[in-house]
Amino acid sequence: GIQVEQSPPDLILQEGANSTLRCNFSDSVNNLQWFHQNPWGQLINLFYIPSGTKQNGRLSATTVATERYSLLYISSSQTTDSGVYFCAVGMNSGYSTLTFGKGTMLLVSP
Amino acid sequence: NAGVTQTPKFQVLKTGQSMTLQCAQDMNHNSMYWYRQDPGMGLRLIYYSASEGTTDKGEVPNGYNVSRLNKREFSLRLESAAPSQTSVYFCASALAGTTYEQYFGPGTRLTVT
């Protein structure tokens, strides 16, 4: 099946710093989503981005499908950004669903 | 819109007991999914229903059964719970298959002792 690798596995930032999270995948995809899992365990949709670039406030994402990677940018980080960020990809074949990476755990300290 | 709802939020079972996790969505989605999340890992697919009337196994189906009751509801049943099924269970839905964005419920935290 498709492989999804996220880096870095852990990240500690001071409030106000910027960061870039990366997601590499091993095959062509027709779906790529970024999620934030907050400390209460809730999965929050950040971006649906199988290709191109999107921005939402302090967050933006870029997927280069031909090179099989996606980047999530967090600018001016806040303590509420803490949690785990997951990349998940979907393909036309296989289980007809999303395959998740193992996530990047982000801690933003005041 | 409530989105995707799950019940219960928490459950403790003894080994060998059975239970059903309930999931419902009000977004008129065709596809629904059950995942489990174990510590330090991403989510893994248990079963999915691409459309009403169909169900298929995912990556980790052993020990589980599902029922797509109608377009809105998709339940997950543990017939004889085992400690290895201690996990957080998430239900999700999408308009139709992998091309569309998936939306997740709040999860059910299950402990099997």
Derived from helix and strand composition plus strand pairing, the structural class of chain A reads: mainly beta
Percent helix among the residues of chain A? Answer: under 10%
Order of helices and strands of chain B: EEEEEEEEEEE
Strand residue content of chain B: over 45%
Query: What letter string, H or E per element, gives the SSE order of chain A?
Result: EEEEEEEEEEE
Describe the largest sheet of chain A.
6 strands, mixed
Termini Cα gap of chain B: 36 Å
Work out the radius of gyration of chain B: 13 Å
Radius of gyration of chain A: 13 Å
What is the typical, i.e. mean, pLDDT of chain A?
Answer: 93
Largest interface: A-B, 23 and 26 residues
Average of per-residue pLDDT values of chain B: 94
The fraction of residues in strands of chain A falls at over 45%
| Number of H/I helices of chain B | 0
The beta-strand count of chain B equals 11
The chain-level structural class of chain B is mainly beta
Question: Uncertain runs of chain B with pLDDT below 50, 5 residues or more?
Answer: none
Number of strand elements of chain A: 11
Query: How many helices of chain A does DSSP assign?
Result: 0
- Helix coverage percent of chain B: under 10%
Q: Give the distance, in angstroms, between the N- and C-terminal Cα atoms of chain A.
A: 40 Å
Descriptive terms for the model:
heterodimer, A: 110 residues, mainly beta, 6-stranded mixed sheet, 5-stranded antiparallel sheet, B: 113 residues, 7-stranded mixed sheet, 4-stranded antiparallel sheet, 11 strands, 0% helix, globular
Q: Overview of this structure, please?
A:
The complex is a heterodimer of chains A (110) and B (113). Chain A is mainly beta and 110 residues long. Helix content of chain A is 0%, strand content 57%. Chain A has no helices and eleven strands. In chain A, the strands form two sheets. In chain A, strands 2, 4, 5, 9, 10 and 11 form a six-stranded mixed beta sheet that branches. The radius of gyration of chain A is 13 Å and the shape is globular. With 113 residues, chain B is mainly β. Helices cover 0% and strands 50% of the residues of chain B. Chain B has no helices and eleven strands. Chain B has strands spanning 4-7, 10-13, 19-25, 31-37, 43-49, 56-57, 64-68, 74-78, 87-94, 102-104, 108-112. In chain B, the strands form two sheets. In chain B, strands 2, 4, 5, 6, 9, 10 and 11 form a seven-stranded mixed beta sheet that branches. Chain B has a four-stranded antiparallel beta sheet with strand order 1-3-8-7, with no helix packed on it. Chain B is globular, with a radius of gyration of 13 Å. Chain B starts with a strand and ends with a strand. The model of chain B has no long low-confidence stretch (mean pLDDT 94). The chains are: A mainly beta (110), B mainly beta (113).
